[in-house]
Amino acid sequence: MTLASIRQAPKAVLHDHLDGGLRPATVLELAEECGYDQLPADNAEALAHWFREAADSGSLERYLETFAHTVAVMQTAEGLRRVARECALDLAADGVVYAEVRFAPEQHLERDLTLDEVVEHTLEGFREGERLAAEAGTPIRVTCLLTAMRHAARSREIAELTVRFRDRGVGGFDIAGAEAGYPPSRHLDAFEYMRANCAQFTIHAGEAFGLPSIHEALAFCGCDRLGHGVRITDDIFDNDSAEPRLGLVANYVRDKRIPLELCPSSNVQTGAVPALDKHPFDLLARLRFRVTVNTDNRLMSDTDMSREMLKLVETFGYGWSDLERFTINAMKSAFIPFPDRLRIIDEVIKPGYAVLIG
Ligand SMILES: [Zn+2]
Fold first, then answer.
1. Catalytic-role residue among 106, 160, 207, 324
2. Does residue 208 surpass a pLDDT of 80?
3. Is 61 a catalytic residue?
4. pLDDT score of 167 more than 90
5. N or C: which end of the chain has fewer CB within 10 A?
6. How close is the Cα of 241 to the center of ligand 1, in Å?
7. According to DSSP H, which parts of the chain are helical?
């Protein structure tokens, strides 16, 4: 198994941030076009290095600061469309066949676009990217998720925006941002609105903050998936024994098949786990939680889906059938209609892995 062979495998990503996946050269070009002069470097290589360094700091707050620069160049119709188009193309070139890409529309209002316009231009970019990827022989389907910032007060508005656009390429809702001090229950009315409208959502929980955040996201907010959720291990005991013991919350997550959007490199960079070989991914996979592999922020982590999978293969010794299982886990958990999920599993993922498994 090599990076090249993993690239050939059909992959599905559920947790990828639009503003965390720009090409360094695009950041520079868009900054030039829109007159943004705060970038910490003036060539693509140095800029890529800067993002990686800042993200490696081990602090979620510092990690989140890097987004000021990407968000700054995504304030115009053309900026949003280009970033979304390139995102779809880059994922497709990596062998991703299904992607859910999220971003926070409220952070793109600095140049007089409305929330609806921000979403429209971004969706247009994804559609362009899908068309170009199909022409290049690497078809991909991209679903957009709308994120509200947990420290802000617009979550209800963003939930309404999500529902308004649900037949036009928006699949669900999310909250993100620094977790400490901003529990998910602060945004209860947004989640209640989503549930009242039979609409799905995920919540960033159990990354910087522990079990109480996960418990709130599930029990009070009723989320369909957990963004990261790595700290569910705080509710799993005797990890080294043949039969680890699960507490109430961990049992609930496993029994209800709540998908965990795990992001190996990002989880190490933000300090959610100390090192990749200490990542609970393998423990959770062995305990048959519904684990999925994700990129989080491809620019900041200097990664993509194939590299995340290769790291897991090298660290935990996985084979093709494991990667297939994680991919099907993700596809089962996608925020698109059930028949669409089945079709991608049966017609794209299974045949793709059958060739690789041989
Ligand atoms: Zn995230």
1. 207
2. no
3. no
4. yes
5. C
6. 31
7. 3-8, 24-34, 44-55, 60-65, 67-72, 77-93, 115-135, 155-164, 188-196, 211-215, 248-255, 264-269, 281-286, 305-316, 320-332, 338-344, 350-357
